Amino acid sequence: MTARTDAVDLFVIGGGVNGCGIARDAAGRGLRVRLAEMGDLAQATSSASTKLFHGGLRYLEYLEINLVREALSEREVLIRAMPHISWPMRFVLPYSANMRFESDTPVSKMLSTVMPWMKGKRPSWMIRSGLFLYDHLGGQHLLPGTKRLDLRGSPEGAPLKDEFVHAFEYSDGWVQDARLVVLNARDAEARGADIRVRTKVIEARRDGGHWIVTTEGPNGREEHLARAVVNAGGPWVEQILKGTMGSASREHVRLVRGSHIVTRKLYDHDKCYFFQGSDGRIIFAIPYEQDFTLIGTTEAAHEGSPLTAECTEEERDYLCDFTSQYFKEEVTADDVVWTYSGVRPLYEDGASSATAATREYVLSLDAPAGQPAALHVFGGKITTYRRLAEDALAKLRPHLPGMGGPWTKDAHLPGGDFAPEEVGAKIAKLSQDYPFVDRKWAERMIRHYGTEAWAILGAAKTRDDLGRDFGATLTEAELRWLVDKEWARKVEDVIWRRTKLGLRLDADQVNSVSAWLEEHAG
Length: 522
Ligand SMILES: Cc1cc2nc3c(=O)[nH]c(=O)nc-3n(C[C@H](O)[C@H](O)[C@H](O)COP(=O)(O)OP(=O)(O)OC[C@H]3O[C@@H](n4cnc5c(N)ncnc54)[C@H](O)[C@@H]3O)c2cc1C
Description:
Distance between the termini: 22 Å
Structural class: alpha/beta
Largest sheet: 10 strands, mixed
Helix content: 25-40%
Shape: globular
Strand content: 15-25%
Bound molecules: flavin-adenine dinucleotide
């Protein structure tokens, strides 16, 4: 039997960064919101990104000035809203006159006309001008500006081959992507939204002035009446649009797979590297989870279900070889401890290469006269999720009159109610209040939960007061929090999305977490 739930204003399909961001914004405007995610929050693209709040330095090559400007100013808005899970990072771009850039960008084409001898290369003055523009386009207060580096004898030069003598250093932001999603969902819930995980939307159809959305989940089959529907299915957006919602739209999404590898820590400082490859592509090497280095990404057309995306051996070797062109010590498959892969849902715009396809989002409104509206979300970036949510609600406003105005620009996410400069003090205070929590543990807690770390550790006086110890500082108290407050149900939710403790726990420890969840998370 199909149960009927109470009616809502907005039904959101998909619990990635865009679905959760829209649900949060809408709930804060006073709308009654329900969100259904077929698996775990952030189970798809939103946990598989490079995790950068970035202006998109490489989009300058495409002269996408507006896209870059908007993303640049948004970086600081986001870091202030979530100073626990995001922070500024410095990027070192080693310069070599032989570096090759993509040949089909507008900048490349212009250069080959006026300086034909450059053939895909870039003079140093041009990179410096690009970075100068990057510093000044979006207005920068939190993030330090660009500088030139002499790599000889410097910590940044130490791991690099001797041929790299100069570099440029610039700023971008870093974010724990899967935590960004779950904190948006928590804030949405705190503002009245109904968040349902492991609940798949199997059909949505118009019925008079309403949508009837059918879901299958822990409560069985249910029907939900809604005044409007947002399709934030990411890589599934087209499938939901044409299959689940039965639209005859001709819009397409192009799926582009990107893979990352995580290696043992390859160098000792806390800056990232921006490497330009001989094939015109770029990759990043980023300090990761205190003891590791994250390297990515690849780009390849993806066939099949987005959930089957995996880093292939070729992609792994490509990333190792690419990095080895820069580092003195060769990076090999033996250094790789983990890989992950995700699928970008790009709006099909006829661009020929995967790299050139636009990263800007497209919000497609389907609202025939007198019928309830649907909004389909194509593309977007982690960096643009908040603005995307604002734009989505602006499009829906005529169909959901009475909603409040934009409010998220100055609002922090749960646990992020402090200034970015105070993060060191918060880590020190946590260790001081709980003397059995050492610095590394305290840092992990603040970087995951911010000021909510105190709620998790509660009145504990000793480590034993936190219940069972699962290893790598994961205690029963934290697991309970993840189940009660963050919708964690399965071991992957805990070790690869709410935390990255999968990098540290051994097989027996993972099994104990799994068994505990089976007993306590239903
Ligand atoms: C390799 C890579 C690197 C990237 N790096 C960056 C970066 O550094 N910075 C940046 O800003 N952006 C980056 N991005 C882009 C960014 O990650 C994505 O644009 C963003 O995560 C898309 O989020 P989404 O919510 O649209 O999709 P998703 O996160 O995929 O969410 C869609 C959700 O919908 C759910 N769903 C699907 N069908 C149904 C259904 N029928 N019922 C219920 N739920 C359903 C899915 O389970 C999924 O969880 C990167 C992307 C990739 C692939």
